[in-house]
Amino acid sequence: MQFRAALFAATMLAVPLALAGRAEAQPVAGPYVSLGGGLDLKSATTQKNYVAGGANLSGDTKAVFKNGFDARAAIGYGFNNGWRVELEGDYIRNGLDKVKSGGVAAKGSGHESQYGGFVNGVYDFDIGLPWLYPYLGAGIGWQEARYSDAKAGGFNVNQARGSFAYQGIVGLSFPIAPVMGLSATVEYRFIGLTTARRYAIDNAGIPVSFKQQGEYNNQINIGLRYEFAPPAPPAPAPQPAAAPAAAPAPAPAKTYLVFFDWDKYSLTPRATQIIAQAASDSKTQNVTTLEVNGYTDTSGTATYNMGLSVKRAKAVAAQLVADGVPANEIEMHGYGETHLLVPTGPGVREPQNRRVEIIFH
């Protein structure tokens, strides 16, 4: 059972790695919390090295468990490049079904619970679907394994022992559009305990102990994740002022276009030249305000694109100030994937839509 569980876990962990060859990182930025839980399938565990009244006994036993449940909560931080780290606490509970020894099975009762914590590293993938983001993770930590009134064949165990533990995580997240920063998650987890643990029990007044090493849990969970710092909602689009009926139509505003690489807000050498030209021209013309508007294409989520457009506008505004434009003459906005220069459908990487417009007023 342990080998099959490990093989299944390795297969599941390989799925996002196959996707990674054609996927880009989907950033989670800043602090977040997550909650989850679901079905726990615990493998049978082996007890060995029995000692009764100081004498070593031959033979092993195998404890078989019923399907149980798990619950977990985590706090984490995303680095805006696909990677995130988190500190997680968990609780797992499985009822004892039976204990096998030498081909004979004794009915069991009571349960075993595991609880403790993990430090996890997780990587999110963008596969081109704004509503679906796979992720892959792994963690190390500590688990307390407690038998509570676990009875079988005359034995009764009430004791806890700790162990180093590891886990692998394969998941899918689904952004919930009406609530910025909120995502639903579906996960498979594989948890293993590594430390040999000796439990001491009493059997009709005779002290008995046994060693147990290696426990494995397969879990299927659902949950929610919430990011605390989603980008601000878009500013309203500027409305042109109505000209007096008798006045001539104003001359069209002069516009400069600064383009960006996909998923970037750093300035290219060509972008720096265009900004320098705009700064120079603003000093020789009757300019009172420079409007700096940031945009993105439609790849990625609307929430992420809004934040990226603001970062692009800030990068251009900062360069204008460095080129001599007073900061109080700059008006800055981020419009995300709205007002496309080249109309496209969702999820399209269009270079001309990844831009900042500098408009003289």
Count of helix runs: 3
Give the overall shape.
rod-shaped
Adjacency order of strands in the biggest sheet: 2-6-7-9-10-11-12-15
Strand percentage lies at over 45%
For the biggest sheet, the summary is: 8 strands, antiparallel, barrel
Mean pLDDT: 85
* SSE pattern, N- to C-terminal: HEEEEEEEEEEEEEEEEHEHEE
- By CATH reckoning, the class of the largest domain would read Mainly Beta
Radius of gyration: 30 Å
In helices, the fraction of residues equals 10-25%
Class from secondary-structure proportions: alpha+beta
The termini sit apart by: 73 Å
Domain unit count: 2
At CATH level 2, the architecture of the largest domain is Beta Barrel
What's the number of extended β-strand segments?
Answer: 19
CATH topology of the largest domain: Porin
Task: Give the arrangement of secondary structure elements.
Blueprint: H1 2-20, E1 24-25, E2 29-42, E3 45-52, E4 55-56, E5 61-65, E6 68-79, E7 83-101, E8 104-107, E9 109-126, E10 133-152, E11 155-175, E12 182-193, E13 197-203, E14 206-212, E15 215-227, E16 255-259, H2 269-284, E17 290-294, H3 302-322, E18 330-334, E19 355-360
Parallel strand pairs: 17-18
Antiparallel strand pairs: 1-9, 2-6, 2-15, 3-4, 3-5, 3-14, 5-7, 6-7, 7-8, 7-9, 9-10, 10-11, 11-12, 12-15, 13-14, 16-19, 17-19
